[in-house]
Write a structure and sequence with these properties.
27% strand, flat, two-stranded antiparallel ribbon
Length: 154
């Protein structure tokens, strides 16, 4: 009998007891094969319960992290992404660092055609910070998309 999700054997976290890491853990990220590699399409994750720590004061920072990407061969598995984002809970990093680290880890994992990550951080001291970063594969139209998206964000 065929499984509902072809390529399920690529994943180890689904169907197992969840263990939450208390330290930054990019190794928990898992990817599976994109069954629609011939198509350009968006995948969006909104993570409204992101928490990290200020590296100076140790105070918690709260944010909604938004991840948009156009996959190529690999896609990130959502449970592993949840566990990965949870691993920032006790990790000290500035807001701008968080979104760039997340983007770079996802690029390393899946080599997407295009990806953007931004964080809508809760105000502290009357100021909210909304850092944005993106990447388009060099030498392709996705590189141009990255440039246009960055310009529109400014």
């Amino acid at each position: 009998m065929n499984s509902i999700r072809e390529g399920e054997n690529e994943l180890s976290l689904l169907g197992t007891k969840t263990e939450y890491r208390l330290d930054y853990a990019p190794e928990v990220l898992e990817a599976f094969t994109n069954k629609h590699q011939e198509n350009d399409y968006w995948v969006r994750f909104d993570c409204p319960e992101f928490t990290g720590l200020c590296p100076i004061t140790g105070q918690p920072d709260f944010a909604t992290i938004h991840i948009n990407y156009i996959p190529d061969v690999k896609m990130v598995e959502s449970k592993s992404l949840k566990l990965y984002l949870f691993s920032f809970r006790n990790h000290g990093a500035f807001h701008e660092d968080c979104v760039n680290i997340i983007m770079k880890d996802l690029i390393h994992l899946m080599q997407p055609r295009y990806i953007e990550v931004w964080g809508d951080f809760s105000p502290r001291g009357g100021i909210s910070i909304v850092p944005f970063c993106n990447y388009g594969r060099p030498g392709t139209r996705y590189e141009q998309l990255a440039e246009r998206r960055l310009e529109s964000y400014r």
